[in-house]
């Protein structure tokens, strides 16, 4: 009994030294109704569909403890499929790093279920059945006020758009960009499992450096008789806020992200102006220079280069204007490709195998008493990763667009988002023809219901 009392007292004492925060959200999403218009097939109309929703926009569970000089955090995602028990067998490995051949990829794991296809999920490792997955776990310490060291899941961002928070093009090739393996990343220098140090030597200046080799993976490996050591992912960033020094509401930053030996690398230089969360104008431009040794060509076959070289430039951007109840937001990032010259086998790199492309999305919203109305549109709106390709011989991959008017409101603690969605998709060949095209059209009445506590 004495041991139990002493143990309880120790726990209470430890708890009193830390601030403990717990948050959870439950999100349901689906369609009240929907349909499609196609050529050569029957039109489909449906009533009510509840999605097997990945709770990733807001973490399902967050737990953090923090003190003056140390702390830790846990963040969890889940996939909702009516409470089915996990039955999947692992067919891949949790990499938790920037993939050295495919570009940006984090926590990717392939699962195969009985009677189902193998599914590889970006940014989370979950089965087709319900499963709670630890998205991020880390411990941090502050030996001095100006230095913070994080071990576990580390990440560093400089500039990103506020409209589609993770859709910041890295500069990779179009066929990498239309998948989740290399198109987007809002992180600038490091992302994944590793260690990072954040230094704030003077007011306004933040320097971050770290390595993210992944779990059970050496950062540097020295191999006997090898010409050079093998290095995994690492990076660094420098950000300076001009408000402290010059009274200007502006940040400037530079970052370097390196996936390791003979792997993809990104140099980014950017700036923003204004306050994205206050009335008035806010703007951000971030140039990303993408270096790689391979190109995922427009014909879906990789093109190998003789060495790592500049293959793409992404001009990421975001602009917003807020005035009282009204908010207007726009992003239109452009990715310039076809810069590599010649492949290792002499193939010319041009628009036919490495085209340039762009994304865009815009949103107008107006807050009324008790609700907010909005109209949103874009090429890669929501989870549709469709770029507009700058190649006149392939017009089917241009001018796809989603239009989504809607309204948000609360019923008690539950936040609702209900709207109407209209999708004009990439053109496809008409049935029986290789020269005639048409654009499939789909419509739906989507909804989300979210409670946070």
Largest sheet: 23 strands, antiparallel
- Count helical runs: 3
- Poorly predicted regions are 1-12, 84-130
Q: Rg to the nearest angstrom?
A: 24 Å
Q: Give the amount of beta strand, in percent.
A: over 45%
DSSP strand count: 30
Quaternary state of this entry equals: single chain
Q: Which structural class should the secondary elements be placed in?
A: mainly beta
Shape field = globular
Helix content: under 10%
Query: What distance lies between the first and last C-alpha atoms, to the nearest angstrom?
Result: 36 Å
Mean pLDDT comes to 80
Describe it.
The chain is mainly beta and 453 residues long. Helix content is 5%, strand content 50%. The chain has three helices and 30 strands. The protein has a 23-stranded antiparallel beta sheet that branches. The protein has a three-stranded antiparallel beta sheet with strand order 5-6-7, with no helix packed on it. A two-stranded antiparallel sheet has the order 12-13. A hairpin with a 6-residue loop joins strand 15 and strand 16. The chain is globular, with a radius of gyration of 24 Å.
Sum this structure up briefly:
The protein has 453 residues and is mainly beta. It contains three helices and 30 strands.
Characteristics:
mainly beta, about 50% strand, 23-stranded antiparallel sheet, three-stranded antiparallel sheet, about 450 residues, single chain, 3 helices, globular, disordered N terminus
Give the SSE layout:
Layout: H1 2-16, E1 19-37, E2 44-50, E3 61-66, E4 70-79, E5 89-90, E6 109-112, E7 119-121, E8 131-144, E9 147-155, H2 174-177, E10 191-199, E11 205-211, E12 220-221, E13 230-231, E14 234-241, H3 242-246, E15 250-258, E16 265-273, E17 280-296, E18 302-323, E19 326-331, E20 334-336, E21 357-358, E22 361-368, E23 371-378, E24 388-389, E25 401-411, E26 414-419, E27 421-424, E28 428-429, E29 437-438, E30 441-452
Antiparallel strand pairs: 1-2, 1-3, 1-30, 3-4, 4-8, 5-6, 6-7, 8-9, 9-10, 10-11, 11-14, 12-13, 14-15, 15-16, 16-17, 17-18, 18-19, 18-20, 19-22, 20-21, 21-24, 22-23, 23-25, 25-26, 25-27, 26-30, 27-30, 28-29
């Amino acid at each position: 009994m004495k041991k139990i009392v002493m143990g309880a007292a120790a726990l209470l004492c430890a708890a009193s030294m830390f601030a403990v925060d717990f948050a959870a959200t439950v999100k349901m999403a689906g369609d009240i109704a929907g349909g499609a218009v196609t050529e050569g097939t029957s039109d489909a109309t449906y009533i009510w569909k509840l999605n097997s929703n990945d709770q990733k926009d807001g973490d399902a569970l967050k737990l953090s403890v923090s003190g003056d000089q140390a702390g830790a955090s846990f963040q969890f995602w889940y996939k909702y499929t009516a409470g089915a028990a996990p039955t999947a067998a692992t067919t891949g490995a949790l990499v938790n790093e920037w993939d050295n051949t495919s570009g940006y990829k984090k926590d990717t794991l392939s699962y195969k279920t009985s009677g189902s296809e193998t599914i590889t999920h970006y940014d989370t490792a979950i089965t087709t059945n319900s499963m709670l997955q630890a998205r991020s776990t880390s411990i941090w310490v502050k030996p001095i006020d100006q230095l913070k060291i994080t071990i576990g899941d580390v990440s560093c961002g400089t500039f990103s758009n506020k409209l589609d928070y993770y859709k910041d093009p890295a500069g990779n090739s179009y066929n990498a960009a239309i998948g989740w393996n290399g198109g987007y990343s809002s992180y600038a220098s490091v992302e994944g499992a590793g260690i990072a140090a954040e230094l704030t030597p003077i007011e306004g200046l933040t320097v971050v450096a770290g390595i993210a080799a992944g779990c059970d993976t050496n950062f540097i490996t020295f191999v006997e008789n090898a010409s050079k050591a093998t290095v995994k992912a690492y990076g660094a960033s420098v950000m300076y806020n001009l408000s402290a020094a010059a009274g200007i509401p502006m940040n400037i930053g530079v970052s370097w992200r390196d996936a390791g030996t003979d792997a993809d690398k990104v140099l980014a230089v950017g700036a923003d102006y204004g306050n994205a969360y206050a009335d008035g104008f806010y703007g951000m431009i971030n140039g990303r220079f993408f270096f790689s040794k391979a190109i995922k060509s427009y014909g879906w076959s990789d093109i190998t280069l003789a060495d790592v070289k500049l293959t793409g430039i992404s001009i990421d951007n975001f602009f917003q204007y807020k005035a009282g109840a009204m908010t207007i937001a726009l992003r239109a990032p452009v990715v310039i490709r076809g810069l590599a010259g010649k492949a290792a086998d002499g193939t010319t790199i041009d628009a036919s195998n490495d085209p340039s492309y762009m994304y865009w999305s815009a949103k107008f919203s107006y807050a009324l008493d008790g609700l907010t109305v909005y109209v949103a549109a874009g090429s890669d709106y929501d989870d549709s990763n469709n770029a507009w390709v700058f190649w006149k011989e392939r017009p089917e991959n241009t001018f796809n667009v989603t239009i989504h008017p809607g309204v948000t409101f609360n019923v008690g603690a539950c936040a609702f988002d209900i709207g109407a969605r209209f999708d004009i998709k990439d053109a496809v060949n008409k049935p029986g023809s290789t020269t005639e095209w048409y654009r499939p059209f789909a419509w739906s009445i989507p909804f989300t219901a979210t409670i946070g506590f």
